[in-house]
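[PROTEIN RECORD]
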Amino acid sequence: MKTKNIILLCFTFFPLTSCNILMQSVSNSGTIPTTNIENISGIKSALALGTENAVSNLSVENGFFGNQALKLLLPEEAQIIVENISLIPGGKALVDKTILSINRSAEDAVKEAGPVFKKAIQDMSISDAMGILLGGNNAATQYLQKTTSSQLKSLFLPKVQASLKKPLVGNVSTIETWNLLINAYNTAANSTLGKLANLKSVNTQLDQYVTDKALSALFTKIAETENSIRTDPAARTTTLLKRVFGQLNKQ
């Protein structure tokens, strides 16, 4: 009778393929499959844990600057400054200071990312929890990024703007250091020599750039945690995570 009820529940709430997997789980282990609500809660719990880990890793000193994979360099448009660094007196040191300052601002801003992400995760609508659960190793993170990026960017941007105004390196704010570099380069680019060399002015919106890069890094770190939860039973630190993601080990 219990099995019949499970079958009815399964085909009422899950797609056919997912049902087959769930019923196989029951047949092999005798355990009752999770409900759609449990799967949704498990996915959100994994993303929330990923957010905690991401913020913890990235918000410390050198969380960005010391990570070569995530370190923020000058925006692509501003790379021309590096290529023509000889035009700026003390240019190399100024570029290095600017890059350090940009990363310090990202590290500072990420401290405020936790509540922003967790609210987005909590409010996120999931219609196909089993599809996400049975997806790739970062399927939940991809879904979060796809459905909440615009919202997260609008909420996180003010945090970044505030961090850019803080004197985090040499008692000078990142935005001041950035403006000093950009103004020095643009002066050279607009000079007679610069025009002969066909140099273009740089007008990058630094706050937008840092916001995009910081969010991308956060998603990268969240995906790492999700992958661990999916592949390593020891990473499932709660009963809910064990129950939901434990289904993956029974396929």
Q: What stands out?
A: Residues 1-14 have pLDDT under 50 and may be disordered. The chain is about 70% helix and 0% strand. The two ends are 24 Å apart (CA to CA).
